[in-house]
Amino acid sequence: MSRKIELLAPGGDVEAIKAAIVAGANAVYCGLDTFNARNRASNLSLDELNGVIRLAHEYGCEVFLTLNVVLLEHEIKNIVKLLNQLVNTKVDGIIVQDLGLFDLVKKHFPTLDVHASTQLTTHNEGQIKFLSKIGASRVNLSRELNLEEIKTLTEVAHDVDVLTEVFVHGALCIAFSGQCYSSSVSVGNSGNRGRCSQACRDEYEITDAGNRFPLNLKDNSAYYDLPELVDAKVDSLKVEGRIKGAHYVYTVVDTWRKQIDSFVESGLLLEDDSNLHKVFNRDFTNSFLKGNLTKDMFIDNPRDNSINYAVEQASAKASEKAEQISVVQIQEVSETLHADKDVLGNEMREKIKFLDIRKTPVTIAFSAKADEPLTVTVLSDKAPIVIQSKSLLIEDEEKALTQDLLKKRFKSVKSAVHSLEGHNFDDLTPGLALPLREVSDIKDEIDFILNGSVKVIKHVEVPAPKQQPKVNETPTLSMLIADVKDLHLCDVTEADIYFKLPESFKKRCNKYIDILNENPRLIPWFPAVLIGKDYDEAVRVLQEVKPERIVTNNTGIAYKAFEMGIEWVAGPFMNTTNSHALVTLKEELNCAGAFISNEINKGQIRHIKRPENFKLFYSIYHPILMMTSRQCFFQRTVGCNKPSIEAGCMLKCEKATTITNVKGVSFAVDKQKGGYPSIYNHEQFLNYQAVKDLSGLFDEFFIDLTNIGAGSKEEQDKVELIKHFEALLQGVEGSELQLDQLVEVRTNAQYIQGL
Predict the structure, then answer these.
(1) Which of 1, 122, 517, 618 has its CA 20 to 30 A from that of 497?
(2) Alpha carbon of residue 513 to chain centroid
(3) CA-CA distances (angstroms) from residue 633 to 144, 197, 368, 624?
């Protein structure tokens, strides 16, 4: 085999990065103390990042920086400041979620290589083309995909010169990444801001199926799936674990390194994965990759399973001898495991103890003699750098090069890996002058050489977007339905009516094409997740119906609409939170408008600026989605007789239940026909305050009239709801009270707390 397979390792702190390097990682990803999706990791300072980059590059290892959170309007200045610093480092790429960051980098910092984060939920052909269009050079494919889907999408990616990476080891989210709002809704800590509190790992009141941790998945391990991943031509194998320590990183990366090397050299896999079980794990599954979504993917223990595994192995050996494992033997197994962990830890510490990320100290010495050039020497532990002026020094007391002047001109070095420790003026003859332009030229040349003979990129000022006029002077009302039973609502309002399309379609079925063609009033609303044939069928809806306008929460459908010249609006699940994200959508893909994320509060919303001829939308009434999953929530809650999820489940299953955590908070578990299993907050989002606060910003206020996420709650009178929401927008007194009476279980907490 000649193709390089990148092993991409996590680095939550400096020690973990060193461990990854010595264990054989081809690349590491790490974060600074801001703008990254692992706030609970130790993370790095900018100086540490520069030291890590220098060290990694010495070992042939690349460094990718995570900037994978959504950005708020007031943070744009700070992210621009950081980007101005990063362009003069040797960082090999940045990992990005926010659509606005793509705009900033593409326009102002084009030397930075941009990778699309897992938070962008990339799972279909159109999404890869969308991300390529806005500037991504590689994409992290959704963890829920199977090997055949990965292979197909990698072919698409390579056709548009985009690399693919796949998570092969570490924790699994039960929710689609970027589409999980459970932490945000329940405790105000958004996963889109790196503050996930892992509600999926919480303990719940025991379910009918007998589980206390019904949402807790085993960890991912594709250790024995390497041949298939190689066959799929995946470019990077990514290990999860920036919250984990150096011991974990070293053990996992070392084990994977040996597996990859064995396969590359001999075509054979190593059979021993025992070391992976000696560090933190929740047991392992590869079921997403295999497309085999069974109950076995879950484990009723969110904590470390390593000791349980060791005991199980020992018990199995005892059973072979028709014996039972004793308490003493269990203690011995535990002691052996801890000893093995110590061996691995000591091995790691021995290898990294001489690795140093400190900057190289330099001293600048000046030599000035009459009728000779000014000589400036940079002294370090390496060969000196000597630079001379073009002109000769002349005697001129008035314009003389003094120590103070030279200290000021050479007060620092523009190098990420060098620090100026001092100056030496022993050979500086006083009273000698030289054109100051030449002094500056010498300083620039020193910076150039210390920067690896790469020209220092000057600071870029990014102008703030200007607020453009609203399209609708007076905000209008729009609403969403999902059932033909609600078509009568078209007769009671002039509002725009969106029709929610499913996440799964029966192949070559014209049901939704017919509904849309027979009811031209309806505007198609596309979901956030569309995988495989479901994406193909959704595209077919576009092609057959050719609607004038759509709303899409899926960037793949957005790209297809752009290609077809169909007017499209970015839905609320595109996580749009700042002006530059709107610019990306408008300028790159001719987007006509966008919903602003319901995760952000009034203060975070009010300064967002729209591009020209661009509508802004905001939802004031909807079920509050917490998470959507490709796995089944009912296997572990109410129970299900099916051994695994199959295609028919998506199309036919329609269930609802409630789960309650041990703190007494309940959530609605919902599965609609044609939809993915989802969990909703028990409260509806009702925010009439936004109409008062932000009518000057938004063109349209939106209400969701679907029954999705209603759980066991009584259905609302939708005609009455429409009447009172229209009255609200018209400023009719008493409309708020009427809405409160209609929607008894409600909240607008996200509008108050924000991100």
Answers:
(1) 122
(2) 34
(3) 15, 19, 78, 17
pLDDT for residue 40: 61
> Tens digits of per-residue pLDDT, 490-530?
999 999 999 999 999 999 999 999 999 999 999 999 999 99
Structural tokens at position 634: 């009912």
Beta strand 666-671 with 678-686 is antiparallel
- Domain residues of the chain, as ranges? 6-172+217-306+335-352, 361-450, 476-753
Q: Copy the structure tokens of residue 561.
A: 């609409």
Intervals of the chain under pLDDT 70? 1-3, 37-42, 709-715
The set of residues, in sequence order, having a beta carbon less than 8 Å from that of 518 and lying 6+ positions away, is: none
Confirm if 159 and 166 have CB atoms less than 8 A apart. no
Give the model's pLDDT for residue 714. Answer: 55
Which value, in Å, is the radius of gyration of the alpha carbons in the chain? 30
Tokens of 382: 């390496």
CB 86 within 8 Å of CB 569:
no
Domain boundaries 6-172+217-306+335-352, corresponding CATH code = 3.20.20.70
**Cα separation of 712 and 193, whole Å?**
32
CATH of domain 476-753: 3.20.20
Largest CA distance in the chain: 99
**Closest residue by Cα to residue 229 from 517, 495, 491, 7:** 7
pLDDT at 712: 44
Amino acid at 604: Q
Interacting residues of 340 by C-beta distance below 8 A, sequence separation 6+:
278
Gap between the Cα atoms of 284 and 221, Å rounded: 6
Which pTM was predicted?
Answer: 0.92
Length, in residues, of the chain: 755
State residue 265's pLDDT score. Answer: 94
Residue closest to 618 by CA, chosen among 570, 670, 566, 563: 570
Distance CA 561, CA 549 (A): 9
Amino acid at residue number 200: C
Q: How many CB atoms lie within 10 A of CB 626?
A: 24
Cα gap 203→405, rounded to integer Å: 66
DSSP per-residue codes, 595-622: EPPTTS-HHHHTT----TT-EEEEEEEE
Query: What span, in angstroms and rounded, lies between the C-alpha atoms of 140 and 177?
Result: 11
Burial of 43 (0-12, 13-18, 19+ CB in 10 A): buried
> What is the four-CA torsion angle of 274, 279, 281, 285, rounded to 10 degrees?
-30
Alpha carbon distances (Å) from 491 to 480, 521, 701: 14, 10, 19
Give the Cα separation of 264 and 705 in Å (integer). Answer: 55
β partners of residue 570: 552, 594
Residue 681: its H or E element: strand 678-686
Is residue 658 within 8 Å of 667, Cβ to Cβ? yes
DSSP assignments along 150-173, one per residue: HHHHHHHHHHTT-EEEEEEEE---
Q: What's the count of helices (H) and strands (E) in the chain, helices before strands?
A: 24, 28
Pair of tokens at residue 187:
């405790």
What φ, ψ does residue 450 adopt, rounded to 5°?
-65, -20
**Dist CA 644 CA 296 (whole Å):** 9
Residue 167 pairs with which residues in a beta bridge? 238
Q: Are 71 and 577 within 8 A, CB to CB?
A: yes
Nearest by Cα to 35 from 86, 98, 89: 98
Cα–Cα distance measured from residue 289 to residue 142, given in angstroms and rounded to the nearest whole number: 11
Q: In this structure, what token pair is assigned to residue 611?
A: 């591009």
Q: Do the domains 6-172+217-306+335-352 and 476-753 sit in the same CATH topology, yes or no?
A: yes
CB atoms within 10 A of CB 266: 10
Amino acid (one-letter) located at 514: D
Three-class secondary structure of residue 431 per DSSP: coil
Cβ-count burial of 2 within 10 angstroms (0-12 exposed, 13-18 middle, 19+ buried)?
exposed
